[in-house]
TrEMBL record:
<dbReference type="GO" id="GO:0006424">
    <property type="term" value="P:glutamyl-tRNA aminoacylation"/>
</dbReference>
<dbReference type="InterPro" id="IPR020058">
    <property type="entry name" value="Glu/Gln-tRNA-synth_Ib_cat-dom"/>
</dbReference>
<dbReference type="InterPro" id="IPR014729">
    <property type="entry name" value="Rossmann-like_a/b/a_fold"/>
</dbReference>
<keyword id="KW-0648">Protein biosynthesis</keyword>
<keyword id="KW-0862">Zinc</keyword>
<dbReference type="InterPro" id="IPR000924">
    <property type="entry name" value="Glu/Gln-tRNA-synth"/>
</dbReference>
<keyword id="KW-0436">Ligase</keyword>
<keyword id="KW-0067">ATP-binding</keyword>
<feature type="domain" description="Glutamyl/glutaminyl-tRNA synthetase class Ib catalytic">
    <location>
        <begin position="270"/>
        <end position="336"/>
    </location>
</feature>
<dbReference type="GO" id="GO:0005829">
    <property type="term" value="C:cytosol"/>
</dbReference>
<protein>
    <submittedName>
        <fullName>Glutamyl-Q tRNA(Asp) synthetase</fullName>
    </submittedName>
</protein>
<keyword id="KW-0479">Metal-binding</keyword>
<dbReference type="InterPro" id="IPR049940">
    <property type="entry name" value="GluQ/Sye"/>
</dbReference>
<dbReference type="Pfam" id="PF00749">
    <property type="entry name" value="tRNA-synt_1c"/>
</dbReference>
<keyword id="KW-0547">Nucleotide-binding</keyword>
<keyword id="KW-0030">Aminoacyl-tRNA synthetase</keyword>
<dbReference type="InterPro" id="IPR001412">
    <property type="entry name" value="aa-tRNA-synth_I_CS"/>
</dbReference>
């Protein structure tokens, strides 16, 4: 006999499957409309939410734009769960985000990618850099770095290179000091440039953005992995700490994978390393995201260059702001899909209106109603869908200023 809980789970599974099928149908329709670039298949577009809670209006707007840009250019669309921060991520959040994206008509092709399934790939990338002498240990605390960057002539926000040229005796002393406190050093990239260019087709003129590159963190330090003995956890990365000699100097208990004598591994890889590897693994060639991440693009592109990975094209779009003029957050009220006035249709209408002359909202509504007559619509019984917006999408006409969400203007009658 089926229990009530089992019945609810099965009903939920059916709903998710139906929403996913509708989103896939819209994706297929979009593929027929898209212009396929000459010269072979392009790298995919992607969306990569962090599963630390419900997606909000700003997240959905970026997701819709990422989908539209990809399909407009004949690209496949990938989905990745950015769950590298295991403490803040939850499987329930990931499932809910995928359900909500499907409800909004955003489907994807291929497998669902997850960062927590890619640890070995991050370690391979780290080892490749380490073998070329491009990795060194950093013993600085956040306070140390904050004080250093306030010094005269220091580049704002960039790591000042405090630990870059330390001698081995200095490193040994600092390593032992951290180990005595049960901590391990961070690993940083020994960058060979101060700036790097990336292809950026929206946020800046000319199609190229040049930004700063510093000795970015590749794997964070902090508390030693559980099970590490005193003095062993910090020593696990000794091989990375000899900046001019590759793996020379690796001590007892160390391994190329960063494991301590108890077999524990520090997997606290930094996002800049992970996202570069992730995009290459999934065949991503276009990254659409909020323009608050524009300054990260040169660092990530430079790291991809060092790893011999294909470059990506960036499209950094304006953020959605809250009524206080700051970046939209859940504190601003009914901004999640379950709370938004009018549900999925209300949110899609707001997003469509926010795209200005880049889409024809009336035509999208008519197309959505016509499409709903023959099949279930993931975004409701008729109305706007991402696939319908694609019919008239003109990316060059997208507004270049942030858009503001004001609850009073979106309240239901």
């Amino acid at each position: 006999m089926e229990t009530g809980g089992d019945g609810m789970m099965r009903a939920e599974a059916v709903q998710v499957a139906q929403a996913a099928q509708a989103a896939e149908a819209q994706a297929a329709q979009a593929g027929e409309l898209a212009e396929v670039a000459s010269g072979g298949q392009r790298g995919a577009g992607r969306y990569a939410p962090s599963p630390s809670g419900d997606l909000h209006l700003g997240n959905f707007r970026t997701a819709v734009l990422a989908w539209l840009f990809a399909k407009y250019e004949g690209r496949e669309f990938r989905m990745r769960i950015d769950d590298i921060d295991a403490q803040r991520s939850s499987e329930e959040s990931a499932k809910q985000q995928l359900r909500d994206l499907a409800t909004m008509g955003i489907g994807y092709e291929g497998r669902l990618w997850r960062q927590q399934e890619c640890w070995s790939e991050y370690e391979k990338a780290l080892e490749a850099l380490r073998a070329r002498g491009l990795v060194y240990e950093c013993y600085c605390s956040r306070k140390d770095i904050a004080e250093a960057v306030r010094a005269p002539h220091a580049a704002p926000g960039a790591y000042p290179g405090t630990c870059r040229e330390l001698g081995e005796s200095e490193r040994a002393a600092k390593r032992a000091e951290l180990a005595a406190r049960g901590r391990v050093p961070a690993l940083r990239l020994r960058a060979g440039v101060d700036e790097w260019e990336v292809r950026e087709r929206f946020a800046v003129g000319g199609g190229v953005y040049r930004g700063a590159v510093d000795d970015m963190v590749l794997r964070r330090g902090g508390n030693a992995p559980k099970g590490a003995g005193a003095g062993v956890g910090a020593g696990a990365d000794v091989g990375a700490g000899a900046p001019d000699s590759g793996d020379a100097g690796a001590g007892a208990g160390a391994s190329a994978g960063g494991a301590d004598a108890g077999g524990q591994v520090n997997r606290d890889y930094a996002y800049n390393l992970a996202v570069v590897v992730d995009d290459a693994l999934a065949g991503v060639g276009q990254v659409v995201r909020g323009d608050d991440l524009l300054s990260s693009a040169p660092r990530q592109a430079y790291l991809a260059h060092l790893l011999g990975l294909p470059p990506v094209e960036y499209v950094h779009v304006p953020l959605v702001l809250g009524p206080d003029g700051k970046r939209l957050a859940k504190r601003d009220g009914a901004v999640t899909l379950r709370d938004f006035p009018g549900g999925a249709q209300g949110m899609l209408r707001w997003i469509a209106d926010s795209l200005g002359e880049a889409v024809d909202v009336s035509a999208a509504e008519a197309a959505g109603v016509a499409g709903a007559a023959g099949a279930a619509d993931a975004a409701g019984a008729g109305g706007i869908t991402p696939a319908a917006l694609l019919r008239t999408f003109r990316p060059e006409l997208l507004p270049r200023e942030p858009v503001t969400w004001r609850p009073a203007e979106n309240a239901e009658d």
